[in-house]
């Protein structure tokens, strides 16, 4: 929402390659990072994101199966329809987050389907 973007505590970093972002570029470490990535797997940015967070910092990430599954598992139009692949993607993503030093808390499902 526009109001959130205007909050001085919010740093909007659209069109930023998170793999190379440093705490110095942010000016500080942060308590929360929200992720809605495209064309890159979450598993590739967990370690760099960890470096941006305070010791108790957290992430909220939107898991997009079409960017987490291998290209051979993505159907026509970039949609992953197989629920088994969705489960595999979630398990792989959670495991990588844990290996990167995060604590898994929960998953919830979006009512909005990808297009």
Task: Give structural attributes.
globular, Rossmann fold, alpha+beta, 115 residues, 2 strands
In short:
This protein is an alpha+beta fold and 115 residues long.
What's the topology here?
Blueprint lengths: L1 H5 L16 H4 L3 E6 L10 H7 E9 L3 H4 L14 H17 L16
Parallel strand pairs: 1-2
Rg over CA atoms: 15 Å
Helix content: 25-40%
Q: CATH topology, what is it called?
A: Rossmann fold
Label the structural class: alpha+beta
Please state the average pLDDT score: 90
What's the architecture, going by CATH?
A: 3-Layer(aba) Sandwich
Task: Give the DSSP E fraction (strand runs of 2 or more residues).
Answer: 5-15%
* H/E element order: HHEHEHH
- The biggest beta sheet, please? 2 strands, parallel
- State the strand order across the main sheet: 1-2
Any idea what the shape is? globular
Distance between the termini: 21 Å
Total number of domains: 1
Written account of the structure:
- This protein is of the alpha+beta class.
- The chain has a single domain, classed as Rossmann fold, CATH 3.40.50.
- The chain contains 5 helices and 2 strands.
- It has helices at 2-6, 23-26, 46-52, 65-68, 83-99; strands spanning 30-35, 53-61.
- The chain has a two-stranded parallel ribbon with strand order 1-2.
- The protein is globular, with a radius of gyration of 15 Å.
- The chain starts with a helix and ends in a 16-residue tail after the last helix.
- The relative contact order is 0.14.
- The mean pLDDT is 90.
């Amino acid at each position: 929402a526009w109001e959130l973007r205007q909050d001085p505590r919010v740093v909007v970093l659209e069109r930023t390659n998170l793999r190379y972002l440093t705490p110095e570029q942010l000016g500080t470490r942060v308590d929360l990072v929200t992720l809605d990535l495209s064309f890159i797997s979450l598993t590739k940015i967990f370690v760099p994101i960890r470096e941006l967070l305070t010791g108790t910092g957290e992430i909220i990430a939107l898991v997009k199966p079409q960017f987490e599954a291998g290209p051979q598992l993505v159907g026509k139009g970039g949609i992953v329809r197989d629920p088994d692949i969705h489960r595999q993607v979630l398990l792989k993503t959670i495991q990588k987050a844990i290996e990167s030093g995060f604590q898994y808390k929960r998953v919830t499902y979006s009512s909005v389907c990808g297009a």
